[in-house]
UniProtKB/TrEMBL annotation:
Phylogenetic classification of the source organism: Bacteria, Bacillati, Bacillota, Bacilli, Lactobacillales
Identification of the protein by name: Adenylate cyclase
InterPro entries from the UniProt entry: ANL_N_sf (IPR042099), CapK_Type1_Caps_Biosynth (IPR053158), CHP02304_F390_synth-rel (IPR012685)
Amino acid sequence: MDLSYQDYLSKKRPKKFRHYQKKRLQKHLEKIVPKSPFYSRFVNESGKIVYDQFPIINKDVMMNEFDTLNTKRISLKQAKQVALKAEENRDFAPKIGTISVGLSSGTTGNQGVFLVSDQETIQWSAAMMKKAIDRRKFRGETIVIAFFMRANNNLYETINQGKIRLHFFDLMNPIDENLARLDQLKPNVIVAQPSMLRLIAAFYGDHSLEYKLKEVFSIAEVLEEMDRVYIETSLSCRLKEIYQATEGFLGISCHHGTLHLNEDIVFIEKEYLSETSNRFIPIITDLYRTTQPLIRYRHTDILIERKTPCPCGSSFIALEKIEGREDDCFIFYVENEVQIVFPDFIRYAIARSSDKILQFQCIQQTKERIDLKLELSSASSEQTIIPIVIDQLNKVFPSSLQTRININVSIGNLTNEYGKKMRRVISYVKRSD
């Protein structure tokens, strides 16, 4: 009911929504800060809780301060033991009392650990069902969801209510086994990573798709445009995105296909990467999370803000796309000054080189070495495409370094390690280097 009211305000009375959101933020802080030893230390001497006085934290701080940050006095050691045992046994039901424990995929280094209470799982389930499921499409039909994930969690199981049935597909199981089970299940909703959706699309390129998909959602990985086109064409269904992370349910596509941040669930500050850029890093405060509070948490995703209003009418922040992790930026040094090339420029340079490029992965191995792997259609000419790709990539790199940067191009089938996130643009060069 609260989310429905905020949705109404965002569309009809956006100024009132912003006022409501700030009141909601203050109310949440007053409720949760005294229960967290970590956050309570930042309350000023008068006892007043002021949002701007809280530090901006990151994943390292969240993990280092895990024991004092959460409000249930659960230690990181205890939480990891439960989560790792669940991963090993593939049984994700055990809890610490009423608290479910989960692990992030660890694509940015060490794995994050998250805690969710029974109350929070119910709230998450309600938010997900309201935002993701357009019941008008199903007309009383049972909603059968095929959900592909590396690890299940009690969080996801709460969606099973009434005429909604979620079926967990373990990415640790063999691909053929999962695809056969999917074909037998005949779901009307599929939720999976783009790399898994490509496998599903390829499967139904060889086998007839004998059931109607009402919704297909991309999760966990950056959705590339070439992947979107391939998946939508093969599955005959518009692809939407769910922006879910260890840090919470951050965003979802509206019915017009625009990805909006869930400002009814999270309060967002924007750290713009330059004064003229529409790229920003989100700083997140979760307005509902109480077991493991997040206040002014700096994410590492680079988001590209949409410049024009969305036709859906929502005033929630609209995105052109999620560009990728901050760590995915290519780093170069020109006269001891850092020059950054954003992942989107690299993707665009490769994609516009030829429509014969089916997939790619571009890796900055060192300051002067780039490895690019291309998967081409059978009718492609390697000798024609490779020089064009190299030329297009050189145009986005610093001009003074172009003669020194070695771009190694290889051709072949691009396969992702099953069960792990696909990353199209990767940099192993960091600013500290």
